[in-house]
Each structure stands twice: as structure tokens, then as C-alpha cells.
Specification:
1430 residues; 5% strand; globular
């Protein structure tokens, strides 16, 4: 489809005049073509037939070979006999069409005299009359008509695509999935896609194709091999004579045209991606408007809760019933319990609705506090959550889609509300070894320099194997960092503890110091751990959030009445249950974690009165204590014999009487939870979900990931959303309106530094406007948690996700495939929003993108994907492409285009086509492309933010974060491309564990190199070399050169971005990283032949110790795991590249190869000595240094030409020849190792090798790989690359360190937060000073309730204090005057040293409640401390 729209664009372009006169002018009209357009219709028909022949032949042969054992059997994904016949017939038609079109074609050249006219003598003789035109085009038009008909017939939508999920037509119609509903949806989708494809045509005609002006074989090179076919008149050029076709000039000229065509082809394949972004922004925002999302998160909109007066009170009452004030009290109390607001704020929020927070008494008198709420005066998190809650209440009353709301019966506190109208829900939290509750040791760690180093792995403590992740940033403790992210919430926490009697004074700073000095009671330490858990990505946050729904239901009056009848039941266990599926609970180390087990028990005991149960996997690896615990239960039940089974799923809950776990059910299994071995084990999370699903009893299921949370207000809306599955006026349980129901996610890690914000913005955009648009297109999939699922559907379709190894890495999306293959629905609603965390540390975010990009390769390879692609329909297939893998494929194509772009200009220069000639030809290649189409990807985010937040906030957020997001996503897009390439080559989608660390975790240079050397650093250095070659060649032509700004940004970003996004560039940490990385480069671990097995295992676990081990492990993995046919393909690819280089490059450059060959022989002598002398490291270093003798040896080999006239003139030849030499060296290495692998494979096939012989063959292959890794310059280049990265990282770190020092920690402010930026470099955060808000309160002598994180300052919450270079030391002993002015005029601050602010004189509070502080610099006069309005 995309290729055909491109052909249409070319056809239109030929008559626009945007190209050369002879090419794009006077070629007739669209319906009466002449000259080039007439030729184009004919030769494109022949080309189309040829392409279809190749595609169909490849498809038939490959599928027949791939599925030969099950060929023609009735099974999903298996080619049937009709399928094969259909494609064989298409193959035959294509062959016949090619023959007829080519033999009947009538090609004519356009005369030069007809550049300015197509009339009179310039009239094309083939189109003088309509009869002549028809006679000329009849066979081509007949082919095109037949091709379109066949294409439509072969790709028409199948109903159903697999089988009907709901087999009864009447039931489908009642559920909104009848034929008329489908027809209306199809019309809408088809119209949208026609418009989008026309948009692509416009971009290609106006932007992409003009770049080819003058760049065709005939015009640019005089290469007239096509003769009359193209219609372009003959021109004289480099390739005019046949004897010149293999010359350097002709080869480079033709190569430049081919590369330009490839670049344009990639451009037309990618432009639809950006057009889809634009349409998703426009249509998604329009759909959001219809869903009442205007200002849904705008906190400047006042909330009026005055009973019987305020509009929000009326809306609240209409949605929740007459006892809405009790619901409001529960919401406010939950915000207070989680320390999102202070006790004073909670009291004010409750009284604003005319109620008291404590007790059940309703305030009846008119109180002055009963006034509209200004959310801008509340903490940002609470304000935004409340704004969304109130603005989304309108949806409850008018949900749309034919669903009606009756307040009397449907509202949760309505007069006739029945608890039976609330659908039962089972919430599942699958856990593995994620952090349950942060440990005390973790919270106190992180401040020591060694905490910023790599640690010993958990399974090898204290052995000196430093390959684990750092514990912190090496500057502040982890608890201090969490507090710096949420300083106001820490203060609210201290006030709540004081109110509850845990501490005497609500002093947040004192609370932190006592915790660090171990002076707190155990119960208070546990409260602090829970506070930290609610602000990190922990299992505890997810469990507490999920329980919000149960507690919301339990607070309803009618629910209390219902469960009063059943004293043995926990309220509301019939309507909601929470299943914590902990896969490794009770297992021995290293699989299990005793700290996590203890934390799970703490959670279960803390919430013993709630309907929460634990499900775990009982295996032979489980501890003896757990086995005795389960067997004791089975023995009491009777009928059990010890050792009757080895695997079981166990369900238990906390027993308050015995203060321990009590088993409820045991389900024995024959097999383990995960099946398979090694990389081919079934998907862990999918298996764990299935383990919990066996015990779920709810009508609907919800799986929550271990980094989620729920705001209590959203929990009260869940029953209304669940009713969308089957509205209350429906009675047929089989007529559900959908099987999956998605809703929004609020990415709470957006507050955790710049990385968290960049990642959160992308996830938030995808979860809102993008999914809304996909839902409108009818192709939204299930993208993971926290979608609601029809429990009946999940139990009868094998679970909520697929678990096949390798293929189903992105396991959740296959549930969406399952829904669509059975013609069911998976819509999206905007009325509900749960919290979701995303990786906030840079390396963790990169691992996440690599994981999902690799998973997309598995999606492409899956049978589900093949089935849908063949049966979903023509234009629906485009929707399906964008709902699945378009993002990853497009990034891969864009990445390819970057290297292709630089290579194109190198070939341009070699072909003597400089910028002046390109400008003369009129090609847009002659100018810098500063504006990338990638800017269009901002549109959806910008449109959604304008819709929900307002234009000012949207522009400030989007464009203010443009620098950070550009750096971040340029790097991550390369990450995605590399993962796609590796996955496509190996056929294996690998899992990457992110760990979800805190945003301040130090990113060591060693870890960054191990993570990015192959995906970023090596491509960056290759791109740098190409860029240098281009500049050297261009400077010698004296015709100017392109700066290639975007290319420079790309390779610079690929190298230094990990350093830029690493926190605290302190000199001590830089020296530590430099020392560690240098040791990593020069380490000897893994060099011995005896360590090959360990090297391989370490590489698979990402635990390499040295750079030798890093490169060797990757090579071993490549040569042992890569399919043999892929290795052959890569060998052929390298052969072709070398052949093209031989043809394209002049002999003057090729002569320099002899120089490098001589140096290589010297290197081999040194390498031989290295292996012969028991791995002498000196000889290995010399094998790299020996390459410095290239220049002296060059004079000996090729004479004076090696440096004549100057070395600078010969430098391009040295560099180009060296790159060519490396290609030949790689070809030689590849040929050798392919031969070794082939011998081992043939021996295993024909000699029936035993398992032991196969292992011996694998060991032999590893030995050859080890030798080749050193002999063929692999390790030496790897080492050289590492030193280049080390220097770049050192330079970037020193610049950032200097910037932080002279600009007052501006990097820390930008990357993390202002609290850390305001801390002096010689001290830890909270070591001597309290948080800024508490300083403000102590300074002005009042109890402040606001902070720099306030909602009223949320758009610019980074105060100017972070920019100050003051060395002031906080001195709480300085007395305050009690009226906002310090007694000695310094407001509790003492000047220290020469760098001082001067006199920090306070002034009276201003009208808006802000207390300003006079500063000596006018540029910093905007700085203010926010005080509470009295």
C-alpha cells in the first residue's frame, strides 16, 4: 500500500514542475498523461509485476519449507491448500502480467525541444486522441485493474479473523458488535486512512521527491542503460561510454544516485508514521473534547463544594448520591493517611464540603470555611488528582455508548442502590523479586563514595566480583534523596505522626536525623519505610493502592448493611478481592529473598482485615519451613501422603489469631510454573498471572504491575467503569460489550528528575490521546496493566497474556490479538486513571526500551501476527501496524537513514558532485535539513496538554523540556533500533531486567560501556569516521560542505548522553569512575582458555568483569546462538560490500591496503607471542601500539606517495583505506568462523553426533572465536574504542562538574531537583539543614503548609535558590522575631566565607501569600518562598 501511494506521488510529481523542466513539466494531466507519465504507467506496471513475482515465490517456498511437517493441516498459522493455491495463482498472474505488459509497452523519449510545451510538434504521438491513449495503455491499465481486484480479494477482511468469541449473531448485535456496527466503524476507519495516505502523497510530492531533482542515472551520470523506458532524453556524462561503466567516476556516480533513491525510499516509508502522529493529535483531541476532557487537569479551575450551592457539590451528589459528603471524607482521609496533604489541609478540605473530618457529625452552621476550593494552594499531586476527579464526574452521569445512568439506583449511595449492582472484581498483583518495602539498610545507604561503585552480586557476596549495580549516588542517602523529591510530603508525614502521637514535635529534619542515628522505635521505623514505599516503585505501593478500592466499597452505607448479615465475611470480599501472586515467596536463595518474604508478611498482617490473600508457587526450591507449613494443612484435611507432588499453587491469608499465615487452598501441579530451559523458558509474569487466575473468583479481573498505585477518588469510580462491560439494563451475561477495558495511567515517576519526566511524558501521551485514537479506530490492543478483563473470557482463553518463550516477550499485547482475532472489543475510557511508575534512572530506562523493542521482533514473528495480517483487511492492516510495531520499525528505518545520509555525501564527493553541482541541479540535498520530521512527534503531547491543562502550561511543559527530551529520545531511538536489529538477526527477543532504581542511582562508566558499546558507541565511532572522511574530502574540493548538524547531534548524543543524565558530577566520583573504567579496560579476567564457559555465562547474565570478557562473550554468543542461515546471509552481505568497495574506490586508495597488511603481519607475530608466553599483557598492548608504525612503513611500501605532497592531503586516503581494510579483515574473520561452524554443523548432521560430541564441537568453536577475537584486531579495536569513550566521558563529566560549580549546581537542579541543588557541595542533603519549606517556616516563625512543589508554582517550581552560590550554613539557633523577620536580620542564615548573598532581609507577605526575600542581584529577584495564606 505504501509503495503504491509513493508511485501515485511520483506520477503527480511528474507534472508539478518541481523538478527539471524536461522531467516534471508538460507531461500531460492526471487523466491525459503524456511523455514521461505515459512511460511511467507502463514501466511501473512491469516493475510491480516483477516485485510481486519475487514476493510470492519467496513466500510460497519459505512457508512450504517452514511448515512442511504440518502443511495443509487445519491449524492457525499453517498454510492450507487453498492458501497455497491462491498465492501460486497470484505468482502465475504476475509472471503473465510482466510478459504482456513488457512486450506490449510503447516507450518514447521526450525531445529536448518539449521542455516548455506538450502541444503542437511536442504533442506525444501516443496520446493525440483518446483512442491512441487507450491503445497505448490498454495492457498496462488492464494489469493495474486486475492487480487491484486481486489484491482486494486476497486481502479482504475475514469475519471472523479466527473464530467468533461470541458465536451468536443476536448476542453480538446486542453487545454492539453487529454487522451494522462493524460497517460504520469500517467506513470511519477507511475514510481516515484515505486522508492519511493522501497526506503522505502531499509530503512526498512537496518535500521528499524534490530532493531528487537532477539525480537520475541519465541526467547526473549519462547512464542510459534503460534506453527509452524512462523517457528522459539522452545526455552525455561520466557513464556515456560502455567502456567507462566500471570506472571509478561512473561507479561512484551511479552509487550516489542509488543511495539517494534508497534514502528517498526510506523517507516515504517513514512519512506515514509522522502523518499518523498528526492525525492522532487532531482526532484524539477532538475525541477528548467529546469526552469532556477540557481542563480536566487544570488546577486553576475552582472547586465549589458548598452543599446545595456549588456546582461541583451538585455534580458530586448526582454521581454518588445523597451521602456524597461521606465519600468526600474518605477521599480526604486517604490523602492525609498517605501524607499527600497536611492535617490542617485535610481539615480545610472536609469543612469546604460542610462536614467535619473527625467523626460523623455534619457541620450545619454556615461557616466561612465553607467556600470554593482554590486547588493552586494545595500540593501539586493532591491538587491534580482532585482536579481530575471532579472534572471527570460528568462522565458518570453521561457515560455515552448507549449506557444510561439513573441516580436513584446507580449511584453508590443512592436511595435504592443495591450492592448486587457492583460487579465483583479480582485484582491480581504478580510479583517476582521486586522490592516489597524498602529496607532500613537501603534507606540509610547511598551516601558513601563506595556506594556509587559497582557492588558484588547477591549470589557472590564479598568475592571481589564487582558487577552489581551501585547502591546510590555516593553523595546522599537514599532516604534523603526520596525526601528531596517530595519535601512537602515528608513534612506532612512528620505532622501526621505528631498528630497520631508517634513523635512529640512535627520536626521533619529531626525525624530524619533520628532515623539515620537509629534512635527511633521499630513501629516508627516501619512507618518511615511505608512512607518511602509509597514514593518508590514498590510492591507495597501497589498493594496499598489496590486496597483503596476495597476500602472505598467498605465505606458505603449499603455495603456495611449487606456484610453485617455475614459476620464471617470480610467487607467487601464478595465484591472485591486482592491476590498477591508472589512467585518466589518462601524459596531458598538465590531465587528467593528472605527480606521480601518478611515484608509480605508485614503487609498481610497490617491489612489482615481486608480481603487480601497470598498465592505462591510451591516447588522443590521452596524452604523446608514452607513445605512443612503446607503439608501440615494437607495432613489436617486428610487424604494426603507425603511426597505426593513436587509442585503446587498455594493460596493463604493472614490469621490474626495465630499471627501467621493460614493456608486456604492447595492446587497440586505435575509441572513447574515455567516450562523450558535457558532462554527458552516460558514467560515468567504470564505464568505467574495464570497461577493467580486459578484462584480468582471475580466476574472481572485486573492485573496490576508492581509499580502502580491508586488514588482513593479513582477507586470510588471503579464500579461505574466496570458497568461498561455489561450495563445494568442488560441481563444476558454473554452479551458483554467488550472483553478488555483500558483506561488512563498517571505516571507518578514524572516527578523523579528529568529522566523520569521524559519517560513519563512519552508514556502519558501513549496512554491518553494515542490509545483514545486507536480505540476510535477499533484496533486498540491490550498493552499491559491495569486494564480490566472479562474474567469468563480470561479463564477460557488461557489467561490474560501469552507465555511462549522468546516470541511472547511482550506478553500482554497478545491478549489484544486474541480479542481482535475473535471479533471482540477492547475500548478505552478517560474517566478513570490509576498511577503507574516508569524507570527514572537512565540505564534502567534504556533497558526498558531495549526490552520492548526486542519484544516487537517477537510480535512480528508470531503466528498471531501472521494470522491478523492476512485476514484483517486492507486499510485495517495499517491501523494494526500502528497499534503494534510501527514505532519500533520506524525508528529502525530512521536510524538506517542517518548512516545512509553521510555515506551518500561521501559518494557525492567522490563522484565530483559537490554542493555547487547539487544546487545547480536544484536538489534539496544541497541545503542542511535542520527541521526534522521528528518534531511532529510532539504534536500528540502538545494537543493533549492543551486539552487537559491549558495552552500556557502545555507550551511551557513541551517546549521547556525540548532539550532534555531531544537528548533522551535521540539516544533511546538508537537503543530501539539496535534491539530491533539484534532481535531480527538472532530471532530471539531477550528480556532485560531494569530493576527500577531511584533516579539518583549513579551510572558508572563501566556499566554504561557494557550496556551501550555495541548499540551506541561502536555506531557512533563509525559515524564519526564517515563524517571525518566526508569533511576531509569536501575540504579538498573547495566547493563547500554541509555541516550536517543533525548527524553531529546524533553521534555526540550517542556517546555523552549517559554522562549528561548521570547525577552529581563530582570530582571524587569522576576519579572513581575513571579508576574503575581503566581497570575494566586493562583487566585480565576471562583471557584464559579455561574460562571460556564462564565468560559465556557471564555475558548472558550481563556480569562481565573486563573489556576482553565483554567483547569475547558477545562474539561467543553471536557465533554459537545465531542461526547458521543468518551467518551465511551476513557473509554474503560482507562479500557484496567488499565487492562494491573494490569497484567504487580508485586504485590510489586501494594501494594503501598493502601498508595495513604488513602491519597486520607484525601484529600477528606479537599476538602469537601473547598466547605462547602465557598471556603476556605487554605483548597484547604492543599489538595495538604497533599500528602507529603505519606512516613509516607506508613510505617503505608505496614510496613517496605515502606522504606527498603533504600528509594532510593523503589523510583521507589513509582513513578510507583503513576502513576498507577493516571490512576485508571482518570478511576474513567471518569466512573462517563460518567454516568452523559449518564443519561442526555438518558433523552433527551426518555423523549423528552425541550430546558429548556436540558439546565438544561447541567448545572448539569457542576456542576459535577466542583466537579470532585477538588475531583479527577485534579486541584491540574494542580497547581503542573504550579509551575513546573514556576520554569523551571524562571531558563531558569535567564540563558538567565545572558547570555545577560555577553555576550553582545547575546540572543537579536540571537533572534531579532544587532541594539537592540548594545543598552545599561539601555536605549531604539534610545533613545540616532542613528542607527548604521547613527552613522557610522556621525563618518566618509560622507553620508553613506550602513549598516549592506547590500547585500554584507547579509550572515553574524550581526556585532561583538553586542558582545561588551561597555557602550559607543553616543555623536554627538564631532566634526568630516571630513575625516573619529574624531578629538579627539574617532570618536564621549565617553567612560563611567570601561567597555570600549579602543581607537576606525579609519583607512583609505580599497579597497572594508569597513571602519574598530581597536578593542583591536583580536577576534573582523572582525567587520567593511560598507561605500559607492565613
Amino acid at each position: 500500500l505504501k509503495s503504491w501511494t509513493f508511485l501515485l506521488a511520483v506520477y503527480i510529481y511528474l507534472g508539478t514542475g518541481f523538478g527539471n523542466d524536461i522531467t516534471t513539466s508538460f507531461n500531460g494531466t492526471l487523466l491525459q498523461p503524456k511523455w514521461l507519465r505515459l512511460n511511467f504507467i507502463q514501466y511501473t506496471a512491469a516493475a510491480d509485476a516483477l516485485v510481486w513475482m519475487v514476493l510470492e515465490l519467496t513466500l510460497v517456498l519459505y512457508k512450504s519449507w517452514q511448515r512442511w511437517p504440518s502443511l495443509c493441516r487445519r491449524s492457525p498459522g499453517v498454510p492450507t491448500f487453498p492458501y497455497l493455491m491462491k498465492h501460486v495463482c497470484n505468482l502465475g498472474f504476475s509472471g503473465a502480467g510482466l510478459y504482456v505488459v513488457w512486450t506490449k509497452a510503447h516507450y518514447v523519449r521526450k525531445p529536448w525541444a518539449c521542455r516548455q510545451s506538450d502541444l503542437g510538434e511536442c504533442m506525444d504521438p501516443r496520446s493525440k486522441t483518446t483512442e491512441d491513449l487507450v491503445l497505448t495503455l490498454q495492457w498496462s491499465l488492464l494489469y493495474w485493474a486486475a492487480r487491484i481486484i486481486i489484491f482486494v480479494m486476497m486481502h479482504q477482511r475475514s469475519f471472523p479473523m479466527f473464530i467468533h468469541g461470541t458465536p451468536w449473531h443476536k448476542v453480538r448485535r446486542e453487545g454492539g458488535r453487529g454487522w451494522w456496527d462493524k460497517a460504520k466503524a469500517d467506513i470511519k476507519v477507511n475514510v481516515l486512512w484515505v486522508l492519511m495516505l493522501m497526506g503522505c502523497v502531499a509530503i512526498e510530492v512537496l518535500i521528499i521527491l524534490p530532493s531528487m531533482k537532477g539525480l537520475d542515472f541519465n541526467t547526473a551520470c549519462g547512464f542510459d542503460v534503460l534506453g527509452d523506458v524512462s523517457g528522459i532524453p539522452y545526455q552525455v556524462g561520466t557513464c556515456s561510454e560502455k567502456e567507462n561503466w566500471l570506472s571509478f567516476g561512473c561507479a561512484t556516480c551511479i552509487g550516489s544516485v542509488i543511495l539517494a533513491i534508497l534514502l528517498v525510499f526510506l523517507g516515504q516509508m517513514v512519512d506515514i508514521y509522522f502523518v499518523f502522529y498528526i492525525f492522532s493529535a487532531i482526532c484524539g483531541s477532538a475525541m477528548g473534547h467529546n469526552r469532556h476532557l477540557n481542563d480536566v487537569k487544570n488546577i486553576s479551575v475552582p472547586i465549589d463544594l458548598r452543599p446545595s450551592v456549588g456546582k461541583d457539590a451538585d455534580r458530586f451528589k448526582a454521581a454518588f448520591g445523597p451521602e456524597w459528603q461521606q465519600v468526600w471524607r474518605e477521599i480526604v482521609q486517604s490523602l492525609l493517611d498517605e501524607s499527600y496533604i497536611s492535617p490542617k489541609m485535610a481539615k480545610g478540605l472536609a469543612e469546604a464540603a460542610g462536614i467535619a473530618l473527625d467523626g460523623q457529625e455534619i457541620i450545619t452552621r454556615r461557616d466561612k470555611k465553607e467556600m470554593p476550593l482554590n486547588l493552586q494552594r494545595y500540593p501539586h499531586v493532591a491538587a491534580e488528582r482532585l482536579a481530575f476527579f471532579f472534572q471527570s464526574l460528568e462522565w458518570i452521569q453521561s457515560p455515552g455508548g448507549g449506557v444510561k445512568f439513573r441516580a436513584d439506583t446507580d449511584s453508590l449511595t443512592g436511595n435504592n442502590f443495591d450492592p448486587g449492582t457492583v460487579p465483583s472484581l479480582s485484582q491480581i498483583i504478580p510479583c517476582y523479586n521486586e522490592v516489597v518495602i524498602p529496607t532500613v539498610e537501603f534507606l540509610r545507604a547511598g551516601a558513601l563514595p563506595e556506594d556509587a561503585m559497582n557492588q558484588s552480586p547477591d549470589d557472590q557476596p564479598g568475592v571481589g566480583d564487582l558487577t552489581g549495580a551501585p547502591l546510590g549516588d555516593g553523595v546522599n542517602t537514599n532516604l534523603a534523596f526520596i525526601i528531596s523529591q517530595f519535601p512537602d510530603e515528608w513534612i506532612f508525614f512528620a505532622k501526621r505522626l505528631a498528630l497520631q502521637g508517634y513523635i512529640e514535635e512535627p520536626n521533619a529534619h529531626d525525624l530524619f536525623k533520628k532515623f539515620m542515628k537509629r534512635k527511633l522505635k521499630e513501629e516508627l521505623v516501619l512507618e518511615i519505610r511505608f512512607w518511602a514505599a509509597l514514593r518508590t516503585q514498590s510492591v507495597a505501593k501497589t498493594i496499598i493502592g489496590a486496597l483503596q478500592y476495597e476500602r472505598a466499597l467498605a465505606s458505603l452505607p449499603r455495603m456495611k448493611q449487606y456484610y453485617y448479615q455475614f459476620p464471617d465475611k470480610r467487607n467487601p470480599e464478595d465484591h472485591a478481592e486482592l491476590i498477591v501472586a508472589h512467585q518466589t515467596y518462601g524459596m531458598k536463595s538465590p531465587e528467593g529473598n528472605p527480606e521480601n518474604d518478611e515484608s509480605i508478611r508485614i503487609l498481610l498482617s497490617r491489612y489482615a482485615s481486608d480481603a487480601v490473600v497470598l498465592v505462591f508457587d510451591l516447588t522443590p526450591s521452596s524452604s523446608e519451613e514452607v513445605w512443612h507449613f503446607v503439608e501440615a494443612f494437607l495432613t489436617r484435611r486428610g487424604g494426603y501422603e507425603l511426597g505426593a507432588f513436587s509442585y503446587a499453587s498455594v493460596k493463604c491469608r493472614w490469621d490474626s489469631e495465630s499471627q501467621g499465615l493460614a493456608v486456604l487452598e492447595v492446587l497440586p501441579r505435575k509441572y513447574s510454573l515455567r516450562l523450558g530451559k535457558g532462554d527458552f523458558k516460558t514467560q515468567g509474569k504470564a505464568c505467574n498471572q495464570l497461577n493467580a487466575l486459578r484462584f480468582a473468583s471475580g466476574h472481572y479481573i485486573q492485573a496490576l504491575d508492581c509499580n502502580m498505585g491508586v488514588f482513593s477518588g479513582e477507586a470510588f469510580k471503579v464500579p461505574y467503569v466496570l458497568r461498561l462491560f455489561m450495563p445494568l439494563d442488560k441481563r444476558d451475561r454473554t452479551a458483554t460489550r467488550c472483553r478488555y477495558l483500558g483506561f488512563r495511567e498517571h505516571i507518578f515517576t514524572g516527578r523523579e528528575g528529568t529522566v523520569g519526566k521524559c519517560h513519563a511524558s512519552a508514556e502519558w501521551t501513549f496512554g491518553t490521546i494515542y490509545q483514545r485514537f486507536l480505540s476510535g479506530m477499533g484496533t486498540r490492543m491490550h498493552y499491559g496493566h491495569p486494564d480490566f478483563v472479562d474474567g469468563f473470557w480470561a479463564r477460557n482463553r488461557g489467561g490474560m497474556s501469552k507465555a511462549s518463550p522468546v516470541v511472547n516477550l511482550s506478553e500482554d499485547i497478545f491478549a489484544g490479538y486474541n480479542v481482535h482475532m475473535r471479533e471482540e472489543a477492547s475500548p478505552h475510557v478517560d474517566a478513570l486513571e490509576f498511577e503507574k511508575g516508569r524507570e527514572a534512572a537512565f540505564n534502567a530506562a534504556s533497558s526498558f526500551f531495549s526490552k520492548i523493542a526486542g519484544g516487537s521482533v517477537g510480535i512480528i514473528r508470531s503466528r498471531d501476527n501472521h494470522l491478523l495480517c492476512e485476514r484483517i483487511g486492507i486499510l485495517h492492516s495499517l491501523s494494526f501496524y500502528f497499534t503494534s510495531v510501527a514505532f519500533y520499525v520506524s525508528n529502525w528505518l530512521i536510524d538506517i537513514s542517518i548512516s545512509l545520509y553521510v555515506t551518500l555525501f561521501i559518494v557525492f564527493t567522490l563522484a565530483d558532485i559537490d554542493l555547487a553541482k547539487l544546487a545547480a541541479l536544484g536538489s534539496s540535498f544541497s541545503s542542511e535539513w535542520l527541521l526534522s520530521l521528528g518534531i511532529m512527534s510532539l504534536f500528540p503531547q502538545l494537543f493533549e496538554m492543551i486539552l487537559e491543562y491549558g495552552a500556557v502550561r502545555a507550551c511551557k511543559e513541551v517546549f521547556g523540556g525540548l532539550f532534555a527530551s531531544t537528548l533522551f529520545f535521540v539516544f533511546q531511538n538508537k537503543n530501539i533500533s539496535a534491539a530491533m536489529r539484534d532481535g531480527a538477526a538472532s530471532g530471539v527477543a531477550r528480556y532485560f531486567s531494569t530493576g527500577r532504581p531511584l533516579a539518583n542511582q549513579h551510572q558508572t562508566w563501566k556499566d554504561s560501556y557494557c550496556a551501550y558499546w555495541k548499540s551506541h558507541y561502536s555506531p557512533a565511532i563509525r559515524l564519526v569516521m564517515l563524517y571525518i572522511v566526508y569533511n576531509l574530502l569536501a575540504m579538498q574540493t573547495f566547493q563547500g560542505r554541509l555541516p550536517m548538524f543533525l548527524v553531529v547531534v546524533s553521534f555526540v548524543s550517542w556517546v555523552i548522553t549517559p554522562v549528561i543524565f548521570s547525577p552529581f558530577p563530582r570530582r571524587s566520583l569522576i576519579a572513581q569512575d575513571l579508576r574503575e573504567f581503566n581497570g575494566f579496560i586493562n583487566g585480565r579476567a576471562g583471557m584464559s582458555e579455561k574460562e571460556l564457559q564462564e565468560v559465556d555465562e557471564r555475558g548472558r547474565r550481563s556480569r562481565v568483569r573486563t573489556i576482553f570478557e565483554c567483547g569475547l562473550a558477545d562474539s561467543i554468543s553471536y557465533w554459537t546462538d545465531m542461526p547458521f542461515l543468518v551467518l551465511i546471509f551476513h557473509l554474503i552481505q560482507r562479500l557484496l560490500i567488499c565487492a562494491v568497495l573494490v569497484l567504487a574506490l580508485p586504485s590510489e586508495i586501494m594501494d594503501f591496503l598493502w601498508v595495513y597488511l604488513v602491519v597486520l603481519s607484525l601484529q600477528w607475530v606479537l599476538v602469537l607471542g601473547f598466547f605462547a608466553s602465557n598471556l603476556n599483557n605487554i605483548l597484547l598492548v604492543l599489538s595495538l601500539i604497533v599500528w602507529l608504525v603505519v606512516l613509516p612503513i607506508g613510505r617503505m611500501i608505496i614510496g613517496e606517495r605515502a606522504g606527498n605532497p603533504t600528509l594532510w592531503v593523503r589523510l583521507p586516503e589513509y582513513i578510507i583505506s583503513f576502513l576498507v581494510f577493516l571490512e576485508f579483515l571482518c570478511l576474513a574473520e567471518h569466512s573462517l568462523l563460518v567454516s568452523v561452524r559449518a564443519l561442526g554443523t555438518l558433523k552433527a548432521i551426518f555423523c549423528c553426533a552425541s550430546q558429548e560430541q556436540q558439546e565438544r564441537s561447541t567448545r572448539r568453536l569457542r576456542q576459535w572465536v577466542r583466537l579470532a577475537h585477538v588475531y583479527f584486531f577485534g579486541h584491540q579495536l574494542h580497547k581503542l574504542q573504550a579509551y575513546m569513550v573514556l576520554l569523551a566521558s571524562l571531558a563531558a563529566s569535567l564540563v558538567l562538574a565545572a558547570l555545577d560549580k560555577v553555576s550553582c549546581n545547575v546540572h543537579t537542579w536540571w537533572l534531579l531537583n532544587e532541594e539537592l541543588a540548594s545543598t552545599h557541595r561539601s555536605e549531604q542533603y539534610l545533613e545540616n539543614r532542613p528542607p527548604l519549606l521547613e527552613q522557610d517556616a522556621q525563618r518566618h516563625g509560622h507553620s508553613s503548609e506550602t513549598s516549592s512543589m506547590m500547585a500554584d508554582n507547579s509550572e515553574d517550581h524550581h526556585s532561583q535558590e538553586s542558582g545561588s552560590c551561597s555557602e550559607a550554613v543553616w543555623n536554627p539557633e538564631v532566634p526568630n522575631a516571630g513575625n516573619g523577620t529574624a531578629g538579627n536580620g539574617t532570618s536564621g542564615w549565617q553567612a560563611n566565607g567570601s561567597k555570600r548573598w549579602g543581607s537576606l532581609t525579609t519583607i512583609p507577605p505580599v497579597a497572594d501569600g508569597a513571602v519574598s526575600i530581597g536578593l542583591p542581584s536583580p536577576a534573582m529577584s523572582a525567587f520567593s518562598f511560598r507561605g500559607m495564606r492565613k
